[in-house]
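Morning run. Coffee first, then this:
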Amino acid sequence: MVDFEISLLDGSVCYSSKENGPESFIVERADIESGLHEAMQLMCTDDKAKFILPSRMAHGLIGDEEKIPPLTPVVYDIHVIQIEHP
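And here it is:
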């Protein structure tokens, strides 16, 4: 389970867990950005980190068609609240 904020390089916040609460996903199995899967494998419970993901590891050629433009790198500010192991 993670708290997160996704922003553009100019600091504009696109998405935040403050909107809908912390999120959970299964690393290497969930349908999320490939860069986030890699980032999560480097982290432990209660770690905080900031990752800059190139567009190819984030939202790719088309962006997310809402708040993230095509071919745009994003900044993930992450706090790992809890890690559940299968």
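The radius of gyration is 12 Å. Good start to the day.
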